[in-house]
Amino acid sequence: MRMRTSLHPALVFAVIFVGIFLLHTPLLSLPYFWDEAGYYVPAARDLWLTGSLIPHTTVSNAHPPLVLGWVALWWKCFGYAPLVTRSAMIVVAAFSLLGVFRLAERVANTKVAIASTLCTALYPVFFAQSSLAQVDLAAAGLIFWGLRAYFDKRWRSVATWFSLAALAKETAIVAPLALVGWELLLRLGFLSERIRRRSTVSEFDAAATFEPASTQGLASLLIAAIPLAIWYGYHYARTGYVFGNPEFFRYNVAATLNPLRFVLALALRLWQGFGYLHLWVLTGAMALAMLEPPLKDSETERRRIVIPVQIVFFILIAAYVVFMALIGGAVLARYLLPVVPLLIILAVSTLRRRMRSWLVMVAFVAAMFVLAWFWNPPYGFSPEDNLAYRDYVLLHEDAERFLEARYPMARVLTAWPASDELTRPWLGYTTRPMQVFRIEDFSLEQILSATDLRDHFDVAFVFSTKYEPPHPLLDRWTKWTELKHRFFGYERDLPAAAAAQILGGRIVFAEERKGQRVAVIEMKQEQILDAKKMGDSTAASGGTNGF
What we know:
It is a single chain. By secondary structure, the protein is an alpha/beta fold. The chain has two domains: about 10-385, no CATH class; about 390-540, D-Maltodextrin-Binding Protein, domain 2 (3-Layer(aba) Sandwich). Helix content is about 60%, strand content about 5%. The chain contains 25 helices and seven strands. The strands form two sheets. A five-stranded mixed sheet has the order 4-3-5-7-6, sandwiched between helices. A two-stranded antiparallel sheet has the order 1-2. Helix 21 (about 420-425) links the parallel strand 3 (about 410-415) and strand 4. Helix 7 (about 135-150) runs antiparallel to helix 8 (about 155-170). It is globular, with a radius of gyration of 25 Å. The termini are far apart.
């Protein structure tokens, strides 16, 4: 018989929400960051203002609209502001963590569920994503709820949760399709009778887990693809493209189908799934615990997560790792959020089963995760994976306020996403739009190309487009740098001083935070003075058209 927890889900949700909200309090009013500013917030804003599911102030990437609609609903109810946006996403994060708790208590017990939920909430990637207006965490949470329903064989709920997950992000369809593969293996007699007999001692309803799903169960897993197909049909009817604009498709699919790139991306995905940002502490502890015999409570061996459930978890992890290595131009850690908590549940259960001091180890892992919020590792990583994103936002706030105050009418040379930050005041960085001349990045090639177009800009805003470790581990291997450039679009940013020298300007503002930098470079002084005079006269006559 399945064990039931004494903790009511509403109480668990309330505790989780309050905890996350308090931890994120210093972050709630930050302007929008990177992909938030570049796609998700503009797309949600278009939905909020016009009711259009297809964005028009940014190029459509064909992402389903569920999360965008959630954010737009909050804006309609409480007003447009970063605080409202981030509060809406924290509700999603709390609901996702409740899904982790309910899944872990179903396959293990309440103690494992509490510890797993805590570790998941504190894992740097999950924590950083908890208040960002992006879609991967929401899709992950809905997958957890779908898995819980799957193990309970509540097929209507399975269809509902996985359909919603696919409408949160299209790649969530990997989960139900992987489960279909597992069900087919069961029908082919994949599990031997020996494994069945050994696993039926668990308190989990093992018999139900071993039996293949009914036709209704298989149908419920496949139904999840129908709403996604309808969305793509609607998107094609409105835009002429199924999977987003051609450049988006090329970058995320067509350009990734190379065997060598797949092998490299697979290695990166395995690292992100098992070792990234101190995750190796937990997986290493699990591996060491496996060397110890199971502990006994009152002469009864502590029970494990049954073998079929473990297999299901590892099938989902493998499916996501392989799929995300195959597609996706940017190898971002947030794409694995649907499966990292599954590994955490397995690891915590193993620690409890085999280590008497398992609570001490869980506390140590949690402390290491919190340390990774603030610690930038000696390898390349995305600032959105810990609080480095806050450093980025604060740097850009300071630099762009300086630009707006000192050069209000100047034409600014910069790259994305600062180009959006300067031209869209509703992103939170400026009070009115500025004129921008955009280049792709701040590599030597792009800076040199800008020297031929000096008449198009008056100042340059240069910044770190990626985190560069002071003493990188792999970049000492020249071949790795070449491979990153070839397959992952890697370009090294020129130092601000070098960019200023090439452009023929001087640095008038510079700031740095934990390896990330911004700088403003002033070009021809006489042109700047003319621009400032023009700005004064425009202000005297009523100002520019603002948003």
